[in-house]
Design a protein that fits this description.
four-stranded antiparallel sheet
Length: about 180
């Protein structure tokens, strides 16, 4: 008769095809895991690039907010120190230099949601088309200099300016600090 139980095939042929199938499945699994790892890396890189891009946009928006507050200070403090002329402004934090504030995330959260006398800021007016939102506050440094504005006998009074900028989604924030020099009589 000479026929094997596997319909005319030699006994080792069935085992050989089964081994090839197992090797093929292992190879497909490895290819799938490699593709999954590459996709994960690509998505991570995209997320990091997106956050970096938003942070750059926030920094540019902070510059716009600094220009806005500079105009506000120039208009309000044209002839006198802000300690006198800006006490009613939402963006002015009237504290002694010894109690100067370095804003924390909690400070900005309180200020944005419901400002208090110790956590105050104003929303900066941004140009049309700007998707970022910026909040600003100014506080005295206590520093003056009679020679920095030496034209016409003016005195320089220095102020800390803080800007907190958020992207449109409210996920990426940027904090900026600047010093403003106001020349007064």
């Amino acid at each position: 008769m000479g026929m094997s139980p596997a319909r005319g095939r030699a006994p080792g042929a069935t085992r050989q095809r089964g081994a090839i199938l197992v090797y093929a499945l292992i190879a497909l699994l490895l290819i799938f895991l490699g593709a999954l790892f590459a996709l994960r890396g690509g998505l991570t890189d995209t997320g990091l690039t997106d956050r970096f891009s938003e942070r750059q946009k926030n920094t540019q928006a902070s510059d716009l907010a600094l220009q806005w507050i500079s105009t506000q200070i120039g208009t309000t403090g044209a002839t006198s120190p802000l300690e006198v002329s800006a006490t009613s402004q939402a963006w002015y934090l009237n504290v002694s230099p010894a109690n100067a504030v370095t804003p924390s995330p909690d400070y900005w959260l309180t200020c944005i949601n419901k400002a208090t006398s110790t956590d105050t800021c104003a929303k900066a007016t941004m140009p049309t088309g700007t998707t970022q939102t910026a909040w600003v506050f100014v506080q005295p440094t206590g520093r003056t200099d009679t020679s920095a504005c030496n034209t016409q006998g003016l005195t320089a009074v220095y102020y800390d300016v803080w800007v907190h900028t958020l992207d449109a989604r409210g996920q990426v924030g940027t904090d900026t600090e600047a010093v403003y020099k106001l020349c007064i009589r």
